Amino acid sequence: MATPNIFPQEQCDASCSESDSSYSVSQSSISRKEDESSFGGSRSSGCSVDSTERLLIRLEESDDSLTDLTIDCKSMDKETATWISKLLPGNTRVQRLCLLCGKESHHAEVLRRAVSSLEKSASVVSIQIQGADIHREVASWLVPSFAHCPKLRSLEMISCKFPGSELGILFIAMQHNRCIRQLTFRSCRWGDHDTDILSSSLKFMTLHSLSLVDMNISSESWPYLFRHLETCKNLILLDLSKNKIDAHCIHLLAKALKKSNSISSLLMSECRLDDNCIKELSRGLRGYSTLTTLNISHNNRISDRGVACLKDLIKDNSAISELNVDGCGFSKESMNVIEGGLRYNNSYLKNIFSAKTSQTIFGVVDSIEQLDLSEAVEETTRNIVGAVSFDSESSNGRVEDSKEGVSPGEKQMRQQHDLSKRRPKPRTKPIPRDPMPSRKGS
């Protein structure tokens, strides 16, 4: 039996080395009787257990450390994929499943077997599919998992191709699963009609996060997508990075954000934005207090002309606390302006003072931090050392004694003298005078 490339890992796309929670598969066979009802059943005592068999045993026993599982369909054999499908429904620890797909028919068959019982899994919350050609037959294999997996919250499709209407089939399945909250398409290839299918499906889903990264969405498809974003009242994060977006689309996007009034994180890195886009963004999001994070990094067409618009955006939206402008065409002076606005938004001073007053306070603090206070600190230290005494007068006396070299006897006499000064004087009652004797005969 050929050994598959199957191993758990923290990141689905990271390489794994052999450890307690991560295995690299060796090229050794697995000795197992074909008629065993359980993979962990009786085996010959002399049988060597390789990493793949140990992994399958851990799947059956629901090992606590086995939370991430990656299946490489390009190197796995069909028999192991069958065992995966048998053990996965009973496992209660695997949460994240990554499927590395191939283009050959053998790879597709391994995928079919691996996901055949995934809808019965009680623990999987995230599915990532990489490099799959989603034709009609593959889509039909994924439909049960997408529609009925009871705890599925995150779906991610990376570098997948949708040659026909297969995306519509998957979205019909996703609409039946009320648990899905995160949906990601990254570097996939589809047509304009697929963008419209996604847009029309948004109102039937309860998404908190939508990522469409490097999807080559045409300018004609953006307006339809943004109109349907207005109905997403639970959407918190929107990632449109690595797509071309012009100023008109930015205007429509800002309008949709204000109507939905839920998106707090907007990511538009490498979207070829320019100063006009920032101008439309600043105008459209004026007063939009929900936005807290904005990423417009690596848009080198944004110059110092757009800084004034960004400054107004930060000023009008005091909730913005994170702004990523790495890779933009800003000068150092412009960066200081942006940094000052963010500093105010992140400080508690905005709840007490105006922005102008707060910036003045920041300037005073910066000036103080630049001063050389070493001499003042030394003087203050000397004063504190001299004052650490219960009696300043006797303390000064002891300092003088140490300087003049007073003998111990004289020092004791001085201490007694100091004590006599501090000793309270006894209160004396006045002696009552006898009354004048009365004269006889007077």
Characteristic key phrases:
442 residues, alpha/beta, eleven-stranded mixed beta sheet, disordered N terminus
Overview in brief:
Helices cover 40% and strands 10% of the residues.
Overall geometry comes to: globular
Residue-averaged pLDDT: 78
Rg result: 38 Å
For this structure, the quaternary state is: single chain
Please report which band the strand proportion falls in: under 5%, 5-15%, 15-25%, 25-35%, 35-45% or over 45%: 5-15%
Count the beta strands. Answer: 11
Physical arrangement of strands within the biggest beta sheet: 1-2-3-4-5-6-7-8-9-10-11
Helix segment tally: 15
Helix fraction by DSSP (H/I, runs of at least 4): 40-55%
Distance between the termini: 147 Å
Which sequence of SSEs, written as H and E, runs from N to C?
EHEHEHEHEHEHEHEHEHEHEHHHHH
How would you characterize the largest beta sheet? 11 strands, mixed
- Detail the poorly predicted runs: 1-49, 388-396
Please state the structural category.
alpha/beta
